[in-house]
Amino acid sequence: xxxxxxxxxxxxxxxxxxxxxxxxxxxxxxxxxxxxxxxxxxxxxxxxxxxxxxxxxxxxxxxxxxxxxxxxxxxxxxxxxxxxxxxxxxxxxxxxxxxx
Amino acid sequence: xxxxxxxxxxxxxxxxxxxxxxxxxxxxxxxxxxxxxxxxxxxxxxxxxxxxxxxxxxxxxxxxxxxxxxxxxxxxxxxxxxxxxxxxxxxxxxxxxxxxxxxxxxxxxxxxxxxxxxxxxxxxxxxxxxxxxxxxxxxxxxxxxxxxxxxxxxxxxxxxxxxxxxxxxxxxxxxxxxxxxxxxxxxxxxxxxxxxxxxxxxxxxxxxxxxxxxxxxxxxxxxxxxxxxxxxxxxxxxxxxxxxxxxxxxxxxxxxxxxxxxxxxxxxxxxxxxxxxxxxxxxxxxxxxxxxxxxxxxxxxxxxxxxxxxxxxxxxxxxxxxxxxxxxxxxxxxxxxxxxxxxxxxxxxxxxxxxxxxxxxxxxxxxxxxxxxxxxxxxxxxxxxxxxxxxxxxxxxxxxxxxxxxxxxxxxxxxxxxxxxxxxxxxxxxxxxxxxxxxxxxxxxxxxxxxxxxxxxxxxxxxxxxxxxxxxxxxxxxxxxxxxxxxxxxxxxxxxxxxxxxxxxxxxxxxxxxxxxxxxxxxxxxxxxxxxxxxxxxxxxxxxxxxxxxxxxxxxxxxxxxxxxxxxxxxxxxxxxxxxxxxxxxxxxxxxxxxxxxxxxxxxxxxxxxxxxxxxxxxxxxxxxxxxxxxxxxxxxxxxxxxxxxxxxxxxxxxxxxxxxxxxxxxxxxxxxxxxxxxxxxxxxxxxxxxxxxxx
Lengths: 100, 696
Hints:
The structure holds two protein chains of two kinds. Chain A is mostly helical.
């Protein structure tokens, strides 16, 4: 049986990739995808610990997160389209209107 | 004495209780005119203004009849409406405690009764006359408004029960006189004449006012009814210097208002006003206010023989002086003006010798015949399309007969022909003066002859002889309308019969007038009269009368000879005595002397003060203050800019500098914030594990 540590390292790797993508990529769609990676890392953690403790609570949470991720992707893409219509760009560093 | 009668309103019959309303009707008329007059039609203006005076006249007649109906020693009615200047107690000069009260009170006694009848009666006739005379003039309502205001002031003057209220009327008539002399204000000479009258009167008024102050300080009362008791109580001897001072100060006021030497100069100039004004104000009523005032305060004058001598002397001098100027004037109104000054001199002469009743009697008859003469002159001027120079008249008798006959009657009256009104009053005066002293009598006597001469000169030049009227005016000559001729006729009647109430005892009369006024005159110098009886015995009243009649006839004859019979003579005579003629013709250069002595000196003073004002008050004071303010404001501005504003700007600059650093964190880029969060989380975790490791 694969020990839980492996899962944790996998999810750690995923989180790291996600965070690096989040910080370095300019394209908002890629940033959104990086967030999905982070969420999936969490899912892996939840399922792994669920399996380790022999309960289903973690799996239920994972299902919730998948649902949430789907909803988030839908809303996020909607926002990106609206943004693109207004500013004709999907690059995060060109969206600096919060700056004074 | 009748002075200290309890006189309350409730006990008085209707008209006597309502004497206080007599001045109010013209006042209401004046208010209406000056507020709404511009919008009213002329007929309405005439109705209101003549009507208001008519109501006053009616009330005056009623009050007079009720007064006469009373016993001779109770003919005093006093109505005190309210306390005007409240009482204040103070120590009199004598040390006694006095209390000064000036009430808004009205006093009707024989003296003021005569005055209100003259004022409202002659005033009413002149108002009626004015409706005709002013019919084609602009400012019709303004004229009548002023005229009504004058009537109010004059009635206040004669009805006031104390010196202060008299002074109110005194100033009121002065103001109206100013307004009416300057009625044609677009003419510079008219507005100048108005100012001259007002300013010359100021000098007299100052004296009068000082007299009032001194009276209240010495006698402790200014009520007419209390003057005699106060005099008695003060125990001041006859001839006391302070009483002489009061009397002389009063007389200074009188010389201003009644045009006596040295303040007579305004009256001839006052002829610039419309002719009805000359008749009403400058002949019949206002100018006689001085005589009224002297008579009103005769108790004080009787205690000051020296002042009496001054009054008599000034009166006689004025009478003669003005008559000589009147002889050579060519302007019909100027002749009448100097004649008025001269006749006022007669009245003061009478007062000065103690014949106050005779003075008032002459005041009344003079109001009749001089009012008539002025109105007649107005009618002549009206007929002549505004011409006033007698050298351009002549032969008008046939063309304007009513004016001619009425003026002739007035001239006979003023000349003193028996039995016209003027004869009776003038003879009464001359008789009294003769008792007093020969010199004054001679002056008065000679003046009477000159009066006859210059008045008949006026009549002959205007109405008789060859016409010297310019051709373009000649065919315009017409008799005046009825509104003007009827007052003339009424006044002519009064000039004939008006004097008969003073028919002398020596001619089997009873001299009601003098007896009527007798309670008003206190005779402190009673002793003087019997002493004079001796002098009278020398010549006798009848002889005096005949003597003056003779001189008057001589004067008339002389005028006839010079101006009708030998018309070439006057020019020859004047060329013979060119220098003297010029002196008299230019009124003895009195105006020029006054100009040189006072007027120009006052102007010099004003110029000096003006340049002082300009240089010091304006230059140093005002401009200096301005400069200082500006300088201070510069400093203040510097302070504001650099210190107050500067500190504010410094603060803002500092904040801006800080913000330059702070804004760097605010990039607006989501990923920067994310990076900070990640660094934070990593840092926190690192710290957390480090601490955990440390404690385990």
